Amino acid sequence: MSKGDRAKSAREKIKEQQAAERARAKRKRLVTYSTAGVVAVAAVGLGAWYAASSSKSEQAGAGLAPVTVQSDGSVVMAKEGVTKPVVDIYEDFQCPACKEFERVSGQTLKNLAAEGKAKVVFHPITIFSMEPTKGNSVRAGNAARCIADGKQWIAFHDLLYKNQPSETAEGFKPDELVSWGKEAGVTAPDFEQCVRSEKHAQAQISYSQKIGNEQKLEHTPTVKLNGKEIENNTIFLPQQLRDAVTKAAK
Known about the structure:
The chain has nine helices and six strands.
């Protein structure tokens, strides 16, 4: 190989090395951009969650609208004669996001119903399919179905969220549920037996499957206003939720 050929070969090797280095740098940038994108999405999610968590919740109003426990397990909260707008809440007592929704915006819905500005319908369902969350949810849903009195049901509903167990541990145990029932004012003599025997467990599961398919539910909480889902960036902000409901009432 002549001196010129050797020089040409060296230059070609350098070019190949430079090309390889550029390719590696490009791959590195792509990974960096992808990672940054994930971080950005996470940051946006955390920002929205923080905004929801720091949003000012409403104070309790003068009272509670009449609450009626339906035969299918749903529960209606509305003043007499109020039929619209209808706010449907599809919730799972084991769902952490549902707990946060109740903490932040639950009082807004109670107030709207008490003001005669909405008919609120609760749909406690079991959306989980794996243990221990599924069992926890079914036990809680069954216990709620053991309560026929509307005012007691709402009090029990709130206590379930207040005492929601971890998603990684068995919770909503019978002794706890019976105790919270007493705290909620439940006096029915058959309540404890109903809870411990899980009398309505299958009804809870069947209703969850039926309503999930009918409403095409993909997550909880799902909140619908006159049949149309309200975005999460509204339901977790009490004032925006109130505005959406009152606007629909006009």
